[in-house]
Design brief:
- By secondary structure, the chain is an alpha/beta fold.
- It is built from ten helices and 13 strands.
- The strands form three sheets. A six-stranded mixed beta sheet has the order 5-6-7-3-8-9, sandwiched between helices. Strands 11-12-10-13 form a four-stranded antiparallel beta sheet, with helices on one face.
- α3 packs across α4 and α7 packs across α10.
- The radius of gyration is 24 Å and the shape is elongated.
């Protein structure tokens, strides 16, 4: 388990992380989300003992990570797949880490097979693609068979087969009772992989809850309506208090309606003699929820273009 309590990191006058508290529990995949500059990477580095906090604490199974002897047995991490010695082979890279953590040689062969790199074990890492380096980074995280795993953007550069493999791997690791903490900017991967979310902005906690709860809390429920009488229906729904897009439909078309449930829209259409060809409630969108709830916490915003 990972516990973060009032964690703070300040650089001069800027607080990269501001009194941040959350818990990452075993047996589930916890996603870590936030806009660029939110403090995600700094938080991960403090959890792993790479940066010292200005205040507060981050612990792994009750103690700071730096106090765990032979750390790879306790926490496996992938922060930067490119941060490896390009002149070494994959096997040599892993064997050096295994020796320093008193791990048997067989673990090198086991994790290389698990991540699909056994056939290139003796090739120099400098010739690896980004996807292959990501696989090597995952192998490094798995090397000590640790109960806690931390991954930062692990699928960058992965092909579709690799993405599917990583997704299944994380689910399996969580099912084994491990703590899996995953940082990614890809909403689709969070929706397919994460059980829980920790969302931060400007170094502060925005949410720590199940993924479905976060999506439902932030996203407006929308109903898509198809009708050949779009203008007439839009007037009826607007009068009933709904918000309708497009604002001034003409002729046949599709409307996106918020503020009224599908059954109420159907009843109003029937009462007013409007034919409906489609009436679909859109499920909550994680991406929409994230954009709505982090808008005020985005440090770098692009200007609007006409």
């Amino acid at each position: 388990m990972i516990e973060v309590s009032e964690l703070t990191k300040q650089y001069g006058r800027k607080k990269a992380v501001d009194h941040l508290s959350f818990t990452v529990r075993p047996g589930q995949v916890t996603g870590f989300l936030g806009p660029n500059g939110a403090g995600k990477s700094t938080t991960l580095r403090m959890i792993l003992g790479l940066d010292a906090p200005t205040g507060g604490a981050a612990t792994v199974d009750g103690v700071p990570f730096r106090l765990h002897p032979r750390g790879l047995r306790h926490v496996g991490a992938l922060l930067d797949a490119g941060d490896v010695h390009g002149g070494r082979s994959a096997a040599a890279h892993l064997w050096a880490l295994a020796r320093s953590n008193d791990l048997p040689r067989r673990r090198v062969d086991e994790v290389l097979r698990e991540v699909g790199l056994a056939e290139v074990a003796n090739r120099r890492i400098g010739g690896f693609s980004l996807g292959m380096k990501q696989r090597l980074g995952i192998a490094t995280a798995l090397l000590g068979d640790p109960p806690v795993l931390v991954f930062d953007e692990p699928i960058n550069g992965m092909d579709p087969e690799g993405v599917l493999w990583v997704r299944r791997l994380f689910r399996r690791l969580a099912a084994e009772g491990r703590t899996v903490f995953l940082s990614s900017h890809l909403m689709s991967e969070m929706e397919n992989t994460a059980d829980q979310l920790v969302v931060i902005g400007r170094g502060r906690l925005i949410a720590a809850e199940p993924l479905q709860d976060f999506a439902a809390r932030g996203a407006r429920r929308e109903v898509v309506v198809g009708t050949p009488q779009a203008a007439e229906l839009a007037a009826v729904l607007t009068a009933a208090g709904a918000s309708v897009e497009p604002k001034n439909p003409a002729g046949a078309g599709r409307l996106t309606v918020t503020g009224l449930p599908a059954d109420r829209i159907g009843a109003l259409a029937f009462t007013n003699g409007v034919r409906l060809d489609e009436l679909t409630t859109r499920s909550a969108s994680l991406e929409t929820a994230f954009m709505e709830l982090t808008t005020d916490s985005t440090e770098y915003q692009a200007g609007q273009t006409s």
